[in-house]
Amino acid sequence: MPTLADRALAALYGLALGDALGMPTQSLPRSTIVSRYGPRITQLEAAPSDHPIAAGLAAGHVTDDTEQALLLGELLVSSAGLPNPRDLAQRLLAWEQDMRRRGSHDLLGPSTTRALQALMSGVDIGEAGRYGATNGAAMRITPIGIMASSHDLPRLVDQVESVSRVSHNTNLALSAASAIAAAVSAGIDGATVAEATELAISAAELASRRGYWVAGADVAARIRWACSVVTTRPSDEDVADLIYRLIGTSLAAQESIPAAFAVLAIHPHDPWTACQLAASLGGDTDTIAAMVGAVAGACLGLQGVPETVLQTVLRTNRLELTPMAQALCDLRLSSTSTPEKGQTP
Fold first, then answer.
1. Is 287 annotated as a binding residue?
2. 3-class secondary-structure state, position 2
3. Record-annotated residues binding Mg(2+) (predicted)?
């Protein structure tokens, strides 16, 4: 039986794997992806030379999704699970400066950029993220899902809000991030993908009352709808077209997070195929595939993922994730109290 640390490591591996699969397809329309790779990308690919963001990146290279998640994980570990939001803001700014030095176009997203600019101009930290409604908080939230127990959902949402409000302090973004964190946490506690999705919906509902209100479709309701609507499609190609055209794959929190759960609903037992499908949708494929990989890894491990593929991702990015997975699990165990009846996922 896998341990908590095994599942935590698989969540981080899955995050990086999905991110790397979606790296060459990010920000491309689905029609372009199909013409280049077929209906579903099936292996790690280098970014094409004309790519708007990732040109020149080798096959297996990760993007901001993995790098910012690991940045958050490092901050959680160094602060014993109690990070200062200003420290996160400073680390994000330093990360972007480093990306610019590397010549990368994969920089901070619109919500984070706007919030950090507001902070630097003197806006209060509670106000800086009041317009952040994109998926930036959700894409980097996996370490909270590892650290926070699924048996205490209000506390998990509190922890999501604590590390997200500096840039994404809105009902939509907090709902989206809480859904991903809860699903990862449930998987680490032994939940199936279906059970993790149910807890994700509950977390999104709870978080919808947090932060500043912005107009947009309810994230929890859209996750449930997205998971139900894709079951009517007979093939992955039809599912991908439906997700791309109807559910949506943009940076919007109410699109990309339901899209990720829709992919998981179609492949609840196959993390490798789920990541491939997510990376083939079009739009924000690296983020969607990273979230799919994190949840699938937590729930299922890495069954079916070729060892050569995983090693390519680890080697290309010089990733050593075991210490972080263990440290986050230690924080989880140190803060876990006996769950009340009815709180199991």
1. yes
2. coil
3. 63-65, 284, 286-287
Identify the three-state secondary structure at position 283: strand
Residue 103: per-residue pLDDT: 63
pTM above 0.90, yes or no: yes
218 labeled binding residue: no
> How many other CB atoms are found less than 10 A from the CB of residue 315?
10
What is d(CA 97, CA 131) in angstroms, rounded to the nearest whole number? 23
Is 63 known to sit in a ligand binding site? yes
229 vs 208: CA distance, rounded Å: 22
Q: Is 142 known to sit in a ligand binding site?
A: no
64 is in an annotated binding site: yes
φ, ψ for residue 99, nearest 5 deg: -65, -40
d(CA 243, CA 220): 16
**∠ CA 145-112-245 to the nearest 5 degrees?**
75
pLDDT tens per residue across span 84-106? 888 888 888 887 777 677 666 56
65 is in an annotated binding site: yes
The length of the chain is 345
**End-to-end alpha carbon distance in the chain:** 18
Tokens of 336: 């876990």
307: amino acid identity, one letter: E
* C-alpha of 317 from chain center: 18
CATH topology for the 4-335 domain: ADP-ribosylglycohydrolase fold (1.10.4080)
